[in-house]
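Structure tokens please, single chain.
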Amino acid sequence: MKPSSGLVLAALGVGAHLLQRERHQRQHHEALLARIQLDWLTSLITHPELAEQWKPEGLSAAEYVELLNANRMLCAISLRHRLGFAGADALRFFADEFMSREPGRRYWHRFGALREREAQSSHDPYGLRFNRAMNVAYAAHTETAHQDA
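Here you go.
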């Protein structure tokens, strides 16, 4: 092997290692942020006085807590997607399961647009894909609910 070929291979190996390290660091940060979010949601759910302070206008604290429980599930699904444990098929499955339940549909009806604005404002490709899957499932399940009524 020529010395120049060896240098190219070494450079490729170092580059691949750096890319892998960067990906791992991003995943680590995603998990940390999700933990912070889940801790906050747990605090609101377990302390009604906090839920009362942070609830949106037009919702009672009890209704807000119900929606926060749905949000906890969405955060877990979103993290699985972001870390690569839920590809397109799995994401569609999770979205369908989430929207098959009334609290999931109520949450998405109330906060889906907010989640979309958040993903768009941060140019978050994972969030955008996640929201598309949720919107498709929401539309399918609200259509089914209207047909059953």
